[in-house]
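User: Could you go from structure to sequence for me? I need the amino acid at each position, not a summary. Structure tokens:
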């Protein structure tokens, strides 16, 4: 496993900084990896945990990939590394927005107060730390304010703005960015054995987020849901006003079914925004930069049917609807206004 970049695709600067911290014995007691979903935050967190606990004699060769910690940490079987996640069981839907509970954080506090059972450190990874309840966040703050010398906390979140500023200020922040598309294509082909043609499409669809692209390879539902959402948009451009209002009612009903359903509506609007952005790129002769690379023919047809001013207006309406939903505006009203603004094909 000994590679210059820990076997990861991208994030070279972050890996280099973490390697220096280990080599110089100046490991931060708390780290925060931030970036969009699928960019590789959890993968980096687990790999850093392996490097910290690896038993290889040469620090430069850690993680070796063969010792007991390197094998057990990815399987969640190593006694000194704990991963804290939302409490929902697999396959259930979330109702609460923030459901990493205070009890989970209290358990973590007890665990990190104990000496390592086997390794050099006690490591806690709090995945999606922005999902902590307010009580859990305040409870964690006490641990960050009085760190244990043998403990390392690794938090992941989409953005620092979704965490308490007092938590962020006590962590070393690593902002992770998507890969350039050509590097993402190469990584998909070389590391994950994706066919070159498919790698090109997935790199564009993911925007360079390798984690998302790999999930799309292994889970056909990812691309199926995306296709269905784009098909819905295309149907709506030729739908009547009554049909658009009916679709707005259906989406707003979904929006009221819990956090998972709300995130699905947000993802739909975000995807629709990429479509209208792509349409503008086509009109400006920049087809090579489109996100929805597998539907270029449909984009060209749409670009011929709509003016650039229409595309700009609709894109603004979608962004406004997204913002209104984040501000708890009536979801049916926000979605109705946005759908009624769609130009007719």
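Assistant: Here is the amino acid at each position, in order:
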């Amino acid at each position: 496993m000994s590679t210059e970049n820990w076997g990861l695709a991208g994030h070279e600067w972050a890996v280099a900084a973490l390697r220096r911290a280990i080599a110089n014995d100046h490991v931060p007691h708390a780290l925060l990896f931030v970036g969009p979903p699928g960019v590789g935050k959890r993968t980096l967190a687990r790999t850093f945990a392996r490097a910290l606990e690896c038993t290889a004699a040469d620090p430069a060769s850690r993680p070796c990939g063969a010792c007991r910690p390197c094998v057990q940490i990815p399987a969640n079987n190593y006694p000194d590394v704990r991963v804290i996640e939302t409490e929902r069981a697999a396959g259930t839907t979330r109702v609460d927005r923030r459901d990493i509970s205070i009890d989970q954080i209290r358990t973590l506090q007890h665990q990190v107060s104990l000496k390592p059972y086997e390794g050099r450190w006690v490591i806690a990874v709090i995945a999606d730390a922005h999902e902590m309840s307010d009580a859990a966040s305040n409870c964690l703050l006490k641990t960050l304010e009085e760190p244990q010398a043998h403990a390392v906390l690794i938090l992941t979140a989409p953005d620092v703005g979704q965490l308490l500023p007092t938590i962020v200020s006590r962590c070393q922040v690593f902002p992770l960015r998507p890969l350039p598309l050509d590097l993402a294509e190469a990584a998909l082909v070389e590391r994950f054995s994706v066919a070159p043609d498919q790698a090109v499409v997935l790199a564009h669809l993911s925007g360079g987020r390798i984690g998302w692209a790999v999930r799309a390879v292994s889970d056909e539902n990812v691309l199926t849901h995306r296709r269905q959402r784009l098909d819905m948009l295309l149907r709506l451009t030729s739908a009547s006003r009554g049909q658009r209002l009916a679709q707005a009612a259906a989406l707003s009903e979904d929006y009221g079914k819990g956090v998972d359903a709300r995130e699905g509506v947000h993802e739909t609007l975000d995807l629709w925004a990429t479509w209208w952005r792509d349409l503008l790129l086509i009109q400006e002769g920049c087809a090579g930069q489109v996100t929805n690379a597998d539907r270029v023919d449909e984009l060209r047809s749409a670009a011929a049917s709509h003016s650039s001013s229409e595309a700009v207006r609709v894109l603004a309406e979608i962004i406004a609807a997204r913002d209104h939903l984040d501000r708890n505006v009536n979801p049916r009203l926000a979605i109705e206004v946005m759908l009624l603004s769609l130009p007719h094909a």
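One structural detail worth keeping in mind: The longest strand covers residues 151-157.
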